[in-house]
Amino acid sequence: RVLATLPWGGAWVHWVHMLHSGHLLGRPGALAAGLAGIALLALLLSGLLLWPRHAAVPWRERLWLLPGLRGRRRQANRHRALGWRAAPLLVVAAITGTAIAFPDTTRAALE
Hints:
Blueprint: H1 12-21, H2 26-50, H3 59-63, H4 71-101, H5 103-110
C-alpha cells in the first residue's frame, strides 16, 4: 500500500540527483561530480589508513574531542575525532554520487 507520493522535482533530493546525473550542468557537470566522488573516496581511504598509525597520539585523543587543548593540537584532535565519525556518511555519499554520475560504468560493474 502506498502511503504517500512525491512529485518529481518537489524535494531537494531530486535537485541533487539531477545535478549528479548531468541534467543541470550537462555531461561536463556529471563528469566533474563523478571525479569529485572518486577523489573523495581516495582521500577517505588514505585518511582511514593513516588514522591508526599515529602511535604517539593516545587513543583517547584520537576518538574524543578533548577540552583544554590549544593551537595545532586542538585542530588535529578535532580533525581526528570528527573525521572517523563523518567517514561512513562521506563514503556513502561519494559512492552513490559517483554511481549516479557514471550510470553505465556502475551498471557494468554490478552485472
